[in-house]
């Protein structure tokens, strides 16, 4: 890899654009996890997973067990190593998050120049079997099927609450990308018949491109309402 940039970046707090916990791609071809602690604000041990490729998809990630402090590294659904960290760290993983770039207020112009097929973030430690299931979920296209989305990172709005409308947008993927590049956007509504993308600062379920069903305190299931849309991970 010849480029580096943020893949998944929490900010320190709602109104503080310093680093929260983040995952980057770095020049060496590694996936880089840097956990940040809330109070006192500081950095926990960082981790590198040298698996990124320019020629093939790689499904890689990390788990942190709050009770034991054990960090496990995963590649294509298989455990690739484990390291001991401090137990019960209060990590910054519940603040606004951006993918591919940091907020402009951070004065950091670096961005990820590459392709991301699928991102999943869970508020609990998954088992080896569950990790394998997440890999299979990423390998399949979404076509009117259910998505497992962590609470707080779903997209779906009441169209009356939109603040910006973009025309000549031809897929839900393209609409979601517009939202990711706009720091005010929290949710989208894609209108396939008019090739229109509506951006909103709110997150509700009315007249949405995604239908949301709460299944637990930690997770929300989202189902595409437009069967003609194919959103690939």
Automatic annotation (TrEMBL):
The lineage of its organism: Eukaryota, Metazoa, Spiralia, Lophotrochozoa, Brachiopoda. InterPro entries: ConA-like_dom_sf, Pan_app. It comes from Lingula anatina (Brachiopod). This is Uncharacterized protein LOC106153009. SMART domains: PAN_AP. Transmembrane segments: none annotated. Pfam families: Laminin_G_3 (PF13385), PAN_1 (PF00024). Residues 138-225 form the Apple domain.
